[in-house]
Amino acid sequence: MKINSIKKYSKTLNFQVIASLIVVAIIPLFIYFTLNNLAVYKNFSELERNNMHSKAFKAKTIFTTKANELAQTAKDYAIWDDTYQNVEQNDTDWLKENFSKWIPDNFGMDLIVVANNRKEIMNEFGLKNGNPSQLFENDKINKLLQEEAYDWEEMYPHGLITYDDELYLVGSSPILKNDGTGSSNGVVIFGKEITPALLSKLEEEFGYKMFISFNDYIVSIPEEKEQVAAYFDEFSKQTHEDISELGEEKIMGNIPLENISGKKIGHLFIIESRTTFLSTLQLIRKNAFSTLIISILTIILLSLELKKIIVLPIKDLKKQISKMGQNNSLEYVTVKGPSEIVSLGDAFNEMMDRINKHKKENTTLKKLTIIDNLTALYNHGYLFEYFEDKKSEGIKEMILLFCDIDHFKMVNDIHGHYTGDIILQQVAHIIKNELNDKGAAFRYGGEEFIGLLENCTLDEASSIAENIRLNISTYPSIQKHATDFPITISIGLASYPSNASTVEELINRADKAMYYAKQKGRDNCCVYSPEIDEELKNNATEFLTQKAMLNAVYALTAAIDAKDYYTGKHSQEVAKYALLLGEIIDISPQEKYTLKIGSLLHDCGKIGVPDEIINKPGSLNEDEWETIRNHTVLGSNIIEFITKDPQIESCIRNHHERWDGKGYPDGLEDTGIPLCARIICIADSYHAMISNRSYRKALTKEEAISELRKNAGTQFDPDLVEVFIKVIGE
Predict the structure, then answer these.
(1) Which end of the chain has fewer beta carbons closer than 10 Å to its terminal beta carbon, N or C?
(2) Distant-in-sequence, close-in-space partners of 464: CB < 8 Å, separation ≥ 6
(3) 722 near 666, Cβ under 8 Å?
(4) Which CATH number covers residue 716?
(5) For 490-521, how does the pLDDT look when each residue is reduced to its tens digit (9 = 90+)?
(6) What are the angstrom distances between the C-alpha of 542 and each of 410, 517, 530, 545, 652?
(7) Both 656 and 699 in a single domain?
């Protein structure tokens, strides 16, 4: 009897609500605390390991800094007229007085070697067995005796070396005169032996407990020698892990040590206590367990209270609804209880009134499901439904425009997705305005748009596509975000039913035409034809090569502009002006590509021109002018390693030719100068005039235009000058 009552009660709403609340709440809570505990342990462990990595690196940096200081001290004594002369005169008494007698007491050096450029020891201190051969076996130190050096790394080698089975920090310097000129007269080497005493001193100074292993030797703080040996054994057992746990109490990090030549010679170890990590982790676990127990008790009490608040009013509501079902009628219900339960009853009472309202809302909802919320164009999914609807309406011919913004990833990477979204909205606005009432616009993908035109000829569709392309390439609000060259769009066109019988096939054909437009240099419109399939297949490798070359061009362009800090992004600005002029005079897609690459690389030969000439504030002498003029020839030689295109090479070689034939390097004149080279000449000169230079301030736009007109017919193509002036004026 009692068992039956329990079974019956277990089926009631009261029991099921209480049991469900307990199970649903406690199980996720238990899982949460378990996973949270594991996550905390993992994150703390990772934090501990990262901390040890950082400290090991900082400890290694201490030795690098100390070696740097030794090199600086060596430089102070080596680059000195007195040292230079006394080494040259073999005055060992003077060297002894000023080096081995003075320096050890005042600088705490353990090793001093002064040698002439024949490797003969002129003075030494701490040189065991009087044998310096191990020191001169080092390539970087030996190099100081053989040739001139030009930078810190070569002229003052410093770091770790092993000498006579001992480890030293050394700094060295060639022996030069005060002004640092001439060939080396010898070498000065200062060193400090890595000893337990030195490690103790570094611990006091920096707070790092360190020891070093090299050549099967261990150097450690004296009082921890035996314990350090045990640590090293533990490190060896753990297959040389960079972080090793020494039981539960300590953790050890290590970092490889290299000598001056970069060859690995040992390891630097740093040991830290794990007390803080372990105590913090224990506290977190304790708090998590306590929180779990309290939460379980709270949930149980809450579930009992919910029985009164929720279950009983719901049972009453259930009775009223069951009664309506028996009577096959809809009536108002009366509910008592919390406001939420009362609201549930009110919602039921309003159901009939809301049915009509929902019909209207469904219409609005359908509209929302077909609109892209960023651009306000139709979305990808609706394109297929729209196409079928138009077929059902009897539309016999449609033309699809597949539009893709060129290099859009670069815009997002440089300016961020917020700016990218603004550009997408502006491009969508242009496309929608150009289509107007001739068709519908869709956002197909990230930077892909589709225009679907109905009852429109191919010539009309091509004209619309060209207007879209031109408007985007000249739209100020879009082009202000341009980087290396204007933001452009490539468009492919395909017709239904002549090119495709289904919308999927139509999209595929237009997509191929768009991709073909990109292969032709981007910023193009192309109409699909069956020949495009074969050309895409044949040109796939060439297009990938072209993309790789563009990446190389961007890198080289950045290097070119970095040479002249007065003009900033000169190459990029010249490319913008040149492409704008090329667009106005309607050059071919291949010429646009040539002009783009040629203008970006027109000054690549300046990489071989010394900075002091490029940034010289005064007038250049004849030799310097000859070096400057030679940059066009040097540039044409450099470009051969990037492309074998003679048209691009002529942009670099001939952009300083003059219309009157007095330019360089080939003395070409008139229309004998390639068109792209003539365009770059004008764009290059204009941007140079409006930029600050080392020898003058920038001209105003009006002054620069006046100079262009003044030199039209002598330096510049007169017809191109007038078009260019009109372009920049607009």
Answers:
(1) N
(2) 401, 434, 435, 438, 451, 453, 456
(3) no
(4) 1.10.3210.10
(5) 999 999 999 999 999 999 999 989 988 887 77
(6) 21, 14, 20, 5, 22
(7) yes
